[in-house]
């Protein structure tokens, strides 16, 4: 790790007017990448003393950006999809340290990105993407480009995108709110630009609008092992079922795309359909529309469909 200056502001204003650098909360991503020389900030701003905490479930869900993942998962009234996504993330030790804001900003687990000895367009724009023709079993099949095929790593982001979450962002000039689904950017020709966070901005809180039937939600994660592993595919699902028919649905998936991926076509196919495995299979047929599998990850196309069906079946069977 290279030398750096550290500051510990106690007010949001002081943090936002600090010299340019990297914000440090739990450090479970930043410190990791600094050790690998992937990130080399000259100035690090420790924001743990800022008043960016709190969990409120009285009208929807509000989560302060500095809340720890384990605390949010344990809080009563948090939507089940969010709780389950958190509990299936990382290890208990990491969940005790990692912040909600940091989780949403975590960088890809692509091995090429994390190895400074090889090219990577996210690290060095224009250097190339060796994953396209290399070891790509864990990589994306949706939202990819000729410049990048890295998957987005956050489980939590998938659940929050399904529930139409927003972020409140603060800067020295004010604050703004942006939908989480719009916050993340597809790689296109600029994979180094991963989100809409502007220089000097900070995530203040996560806001999930009230959705009474989001209490009927779940998160399913398929991975190579049950503990401390990133998703091969995951699905966050919320259903409004009345008289055995689906009135409304929210579906998003992870582990298969460059950003948390909302499945609007699947949602539309579910609305008005009977809540049966046959209907789920029919709706999930559209889950992989537009997929571009690579040499070693073609299995994700069928896995994606099966994971969506599994989540739907688990959710409806659990409510009977």
Characterization of this structure:
This protein has 320 residues and is an alpha+beta fold. Among the domains are: 1-51, 2-Layer Sandwich (Uridine Diphospho-n-acetylenolpyruvylglucosamine Reductase, domain 2); 214-318, 2-Layer Sandwich (Enolase-like, domain 1). The chain has eleven helices and twelve strands. The strands form three sheets. It has a five-stranded antiparallel sheet. The chain has a four-stranded antiparallel sheet with strand order 9-10-11-12. It has a three-stranded parallel sheet with strand order 1-3-2, with no helix packed on it. The protein is globular and about 60 Å long. The termini are far apart.
Using brief descriptors, characterize the structure shown.
oxidoreductase, Xanthine dehydrogenase family protein subunit M, 11 helices, Enolase-like, domain 1, alpha+beta, 320 residues, 5-stranded antiparallel sheet, 26% helix, Uridine Diphospho-n-acetylenolpyruvylglucosamine Reductase, domain 2
CA-atom Rg in angstroms = 19 Å
What fold name stands as the CATH topology of the domain at 214-318? Enolase-like, domain 1
The CA-CA distance between the termini, in Å, is: 54 Å
Helix content range = 25-40%
* CATH-level-4 superfamily name of the domain at 214-318: CO dehydrogenase flavoprotein, C-terminal domain
Q: Structural class, please? A: alpha+beta
| Poorly predicted regions | none
Strand content: 15-25%
